[in-house]
Amino acid sequence: EVQLVESGGGLFQPGGSLRLSCVGSGFTFSSYWMHWVRQAPGMGLVWVSRINTDGTYTGYADSVKGRFTISRDNAKNTLYLQVNSLRAEDTAMYYCARDLSGTIDNWGQGTLVTVSS
Amino acid sequence: QSALTQPASVSGSPGQSITISCTGTSSDVGSYNLVSWYQQHLGKAPKVMIYDGSKRPSGVSNRFSGSKSGNTASLTISGLQAEDEADYYCCSYAGSNWVFGGGTKLTVL
């Protein structure tokens, strides 16, 4: 069974930084592209970023370019999202998800990030 | 990277059929056969119901079907059941990124 477990969320101050992690199991992690998707409270899903299998190719939504960095450690079956210069509008549930030939197929349960002073 | 356009809400009675539309552009829905649909119950993670426009993952009821015409994709749910009440999102590949619709709240009356 495919499992994705996110961690690293919590309460953060504006202007601060955080790193989210996502551990994958039940599949060959290194063979799949991976995504981060976020959902602000009461709002819809928003695609954030994706990374290819070996981490050499990344992409970001325009709204987060320059502040977010996606990366992965295939030896640890772990996906990361580094977020700098935190803003109130970054408050959201952050989901990691697996890509299957261009489809975001399996999702984690999410980790909640709250940015507030 | 504008969001795909979905109706905010749809409703239907048990046993009826409903269709949710998802309108994009020639840069996303119209150019790629990579449209997926997700069901999200309150407080839960999304679940893929349709991928590649019209394919159903194993385990998803055949009451769910997808189609696409031009820049618009559609999700049809037939034989509505109470458990279908949820939020539904479409998603399309858009060349170097992915874009979601704003979501549709389905109410089963």
Structure commentary:
- The complex is a heterodimer of chains A (117) and B (109).
- With 117 residues, chain A is mainly β.
- Helix content of chain A is 0%, strand content 54%.
- Chain A has strands at 3-7, 10-12, 18-25, 34-39, 45-51, 58-60, 68-73, 78-83, 92-100, 103-107, 111-115.
- In chain A, strands 2, 4, 5, 6, 9, 10 and 11 form a 7-stranded mixed β-sheet that branches. In chain A, strands 1-3-8-7 form a 4-stranded antiparallel β-sheet, with no helix packed on it.
- The radius of gyration of chain A is 13 Å and the shape is globular.
- The mean pLDDT of chain A is 97.
- The relative contact order of chain B is 0.34.
- Chain B has strands spanning 9-12, 18-23, 35-40, 47-50, 64-69, 72-77, 86-93, 98-100, 104-108.
- The chains are: A mainly beta (117), B mainly beta (109).
- Chains A and B meet through strand 5 and strand 10 of A and strand 3, strand 7 and strand 8 of B.
Structural class of chain A: mainly beta
Helix content of chain B: under 10%
Number of helices of chain B: 0
Task: State mean pLDDT of chain B (0 to 100 scale).
Answer: 96
What is the count of β-strands of chain A?
A: 11
Give the integer mean of the pLDDT values of chain A: 97
Helix percent band of chain A: under 10%
First-last Cα distance of chain A: 40 Å
Element order of chain B: H for helix, E for strand: EEEEEEEEE
Distance between the termini of chain B: 35 Å
Main sheet summary of chain A: 7 strands, mixed
Outline of the structure:
Helices cover 0% and strands 54% of the residues of chain A. Chain A is built from no helices and eleven strands.
What tags apply to this protein structure?
heterodimer; A: about 120 residues; mainly beta; seven-stranded mixed beta sheet; about 0% helix; B: about 110 residues; six-stranded mixed beta sheet; three-stranded antiparallel beta sheet; globular
Helix and strand arrangement:
The complex is a heterodimer of chains A (117) and B (109).
Chain A: E1 3-7, E2 10-12, E3 18-25, E4 34-39, E5 45-51, E6 58-60, E7 68-73, E8 78-83, E9 92-100, E10 103-107, E11 111-115
Chain B: E1 9-12, E2 18-23, E3 35-40, E4 47-50, E5 64-69, E6 72-77, E7 86-93, E8 98-100, E9 104-108
Parallel strand pairs in B: 1-9
Antiparallel strand pairs in B: 2-6, 3-4, 3-7, 5-6, 7-8, 7-9
